[in-house]
Each structure stands twice: as structure tokens, then as C-alpha cells.
Amino acid sequence: MKIIDTHVHTDFSSDGVEKAEDMIRAAIRKGIQYIAFTDHLDLGRDGCASERMRDLKAVLNCFCTYKARYAGQIEIAAGVEVGFAPEHEAKLTALLDGLNFDYVINSIHDVNGQDCYRMEFYKNKTKQQAFTEYFDAVLQSLDASFTYHALGHLCYVERVAPYPDRRACYNQFADILDKILNKLIKKGKLLELNSSIRPQLSESLTADCGTLRTKAPAVCLPGADILARYKQLGGTRVTFGSDAHQIPRLLDKYDAVTDLCKQLGFSGFTYISSGKEKLAAF
């Protein structure tokens, strides 16, 4: 089985701390055979990217240099994680135009101009209201005008939402989640299984999706119940991303996410290599 991690950050990201080459060397030591560097391209209210991501061509060239330097030791994808926002969609598309990133993740971090990682987004909102706003934004993002390969960390709001139970359970948001999953399948995009979750979410849960039933620890976003529904709807393209910002989190929970996927009947993780989908079979 080819060991992959398709969501990794470096100090090009505003919240990154690790040098890219340090990440590469650590990945090789951990036995990772394919790694996608996906630093944040989020535009602020001023319409500008963070300082270290303003010269995207330089970022791309940096990773292309490492691809050549470490060829034969590890396969490196020069990628980017785009924070979709409708008010910035045209500019994001223009920034990416002509740049041949190997792998692009489409993620929602902000909804209606508010950062979902900050408590202001949840102020005076019930869980149903806040999560529905987030899922509506995800659904809109799937029609982004820029080219992308994967939907990043579906259920991102679970990480910090200030509710006693902050899990986005399928049966609570079935209608909007079915719209998201069906569109994702129709468009042929990958569903990222993001292992960056808070410890409070790592309790046992039962996923009930019609004829599919599984009991598993919460090891990734989205959770087992939503992943089971994706499979039931005909989804097959899943990929693993640790969302590592620091070396110790590279490949975090890889075995647990793999076991969950095996339990649900997936055949492997899909990744993008030289512009084509490949399968790291289990």
C-alpha cells in the first residue's frame, strides 16, 4: 500500500511553522511515499492573500525545486488549499490562472465574511443555524470557477463550535449533506478525510444511514456516519489528509482512517499524480 498524505502545510501558510524541506525529510523518515503541500490561499477583507502567499509563482517554483531534489525518495505534489469565498471567487480564479498546481483543495474557512474558527461566527446562533450556514457555503463552493481536485475538511465547524455536542451528525443535516455529497460525486471530486480533529470528538459513535450501519471512533472530518452515506450514494473517491502544520502531525491517525474506510468498503485512497487520479489500494 502506498502511504500518502494529501494535506500538509509549511511556513508559507500564515499559521504554518515548519520549513518545507524539514517536512519533506520528516515525511521520508515516516515512510510517506506521496505528500501534497497545500498552503493556505485565503483572501482577507482587503482582497489580499497573506504575505507569504502573495507570490504564488514563487511558491510553486519552490516546491517544483523540491520535487526534483527528492525524486526517487518521495513523490511531492505542489498544491494549494484555496479558501473559497464568493466575494473573492473571481480574484481567486485569476490568481490561479496559468499556474499549474499539481493539487488544489477547495475549503470553506469563512462564511459570510466571518471566520468559522472564531467564536464570533457562532454568537447568537443555534447549532442548527451555524452549521446550516456553513453547509450552504460548502454547497456553493462546489461550483467554484477555479479548478480544484478535492473538497477539504467537510464539517470543519466541528473543530471549535461552542455547543455541548459539536458533531455534525448526518441525521441532523441530512438534506443539505445529501446535496453536497451528490454534487461532489457528480463532479468527480475527491472527498478529503481530514484527521485534524479535537480530542473531544474522539468518542465512539454509531452511524445510521438507512441500510448501512457502522460503529467506529471519530477519527476524521467528516465523521463515520457521513462517510457511510457518501459510500451509500455511490461515492468512491476518498483521500487522506492530516492537515499537519507541524511535523509530529504528519500522517496522524492514518491507520485509524484506513481501518474506517476498509470497514465501509472503500478500496483505497485516491491521489493526484502527474495530473491523473491514482489509487493507493488498501
Helix coverage percent: 25-40%
- What structural class is derived from the secondary structure elements? alpha/beta
| CATH fold name | TIM Barrel
General shape: globular
Give the termini distance in whole angstroms: 6 Å
Number of domains: 1
User: How does CATH name the architecture?
Assistant: Alpha-Beta Barrel
% residues in beta strands: 15-25%
Strand order within the widest beta sheet: 1-2-3-4-7-8-11
Query: How many DSSP H or I helices?
Result: 7
Based on CA atoms alone, the radius of gyration comes out at 18 Å
Query: Please, what is the average pLDDT?
Result: 93
The main pleated sheet reads as: 7 strands, parallel
What is the tally of beta strands? Answer: 13
Low-confidence stretches: 200-215
Text of the CATH class: Alpha Beta
H/E element order: EHEHEHEEEHEHEEEHEHEE
Q: What's the CATH H-level homologous superfamily? A: Metal-dependent hydrolases
